[in-house]
């Protein structure tokens, strides 16, 4: 391009303009501080809502009961300081349980208790199935682990289809990994016909303690009154160490349970596992095995079948019999409490074998015969629990008398023995 036709770019940004450097704010409007709140209240009917709120509050306070007169308040006796401290401690403990995984205690009105995830080994057995019923009814999710050696699927079939119930066919002598909050370890054949080598008490307990340690679950061991052997102390307290023959025909079961208690306490002391130990005395009720060799089930089944009631020895051996619902209540209180144990869970009402046979006769068949047989080896002569510790620390004691609980068991046994032949059974016992 030629120089004559070139164009010029003119920058006008530096043209001088008159600038006023002084700042002058807007003058304050008079009465602004008064009119602004008024306009706010009048906008969108806010004043109407305020008036309605005042009216509701007035009605509410008018309906409240009037405060006590000065004369009555003057005679008011404040609570003593020790009582206030006790109540404060109680509520702090209750709040701590509500927050923790193992929340127990009473839940304040309006706060729903969070269900726990609980595994019950041996949950298809006699005691285990009744425990499962209570836990499910309470709102917990329950996993039953059972190999059905002595348990029966029929004991828990009524929970099939419940989303809070699971059933796993598994032997606890093999490791098992589950995410749970609590473990009730009931798995172990406990009747006299199973007093032989069984690794459940030792290996199974070790596996379940290992599970409790891994997932931080609370562990409850169901031990037995057999740890006292043929006791030289009567009644038996938890502090009694027992009189067990380590090489007798019953020793595998007796010593197995004693070892299980040892392992449980070692995990508690050495691995900080939360544990509970229950020593269960003779228990009876529906769903017991028909022919497991226990004295109550033996007598009931024999009387129903019109067979002689077999009494071993002179029949003067004593036992204590608790109904299964009492035991389940004790186990749950122990698990939810703050005490490790061991705790005796049994009915201190003491019966000789002859007295028990007569109660069975009265309940089922007054004409039932009694047949004496030689006593078995190492059969304890006396067995009666001292439950003072459970009463004091758990607030537990049995409620069901033998003469009230036995008919419930008889009804269950009659149904299972005679099956669908109800008419014939009823005719036989008419």
UniProtKB/TrEMBL annotation:
User: What is the topology of this protein in the membrane according to its UniProt annotation?
Assistant: Single-pass type II membrane protein
- One biological process term in Gene Ontology: D-xylose metabolic process
Location in or out of the cell: Golgi apparatus, Golgi stack membrane
MF terms from GO for this chain are: NAD+ binding; UDP-glucuronate decarboxylase activity
Gene Ontology CC: Golgi cisterna membrane
Q: Which residues form the NAD(P)-binding domain?
A: 120-407
Q: Where is this region: Disordered?
A: 367-394
Which superkingdom is the protein from? Answer: Eukaryota
Q: Does the keyword rRNA-binding apply?
A: no
Identify the metabolic or biological route this protein is part of. Answer: Nucleotide-sugar biosynthesis; UDP-alpha-D-xylose biosynthesis; UDP-alpha-D-xylose from UDP-alpha-D-glucuronate: step 1/1
Q: Which residues cross the membrane?
A: 46-64
What Gene3D superfamilies does the database record attribute to this sequence? Answer: NAD(P)-binding Rossmann-like Domain
Q: Which UniProt keywords apply?
A: Decarboxylase, Golgi apparatus, Lyase, Membrane, NAD, Transmembrane, Transmembrane helix
Give cofactor(s), names only.
Answer: NAD(+)
CDD domains, from UniProt?
Answer: UGD_SDR_e
Q: Which PANTHER family match?
A: UDP-GLUCURONATE DECARBOXYLASE, UDP-GLUCURONIC ACID DECARBOXYLASE-RELATED
The task this protein performs is described as: Catalyzes the NAD-dependent decarboxylation of UDP-glucuronic acid to UDP-xylose. Necessary for the biosynthesis of the core tetrasaccharide in glycosaminoglycan biosynthesis.
For this chain, the family text in UniProt reads: Belongs to the NAD(P)-dependent epimerase/dehydratase family. UDP-glucuronic acid decarboxylase subfamily.
What is the protein name given in its UniProt record?
UDP-glucuronate decarboxylase
* Species, as recorded: Crotalaria pallida
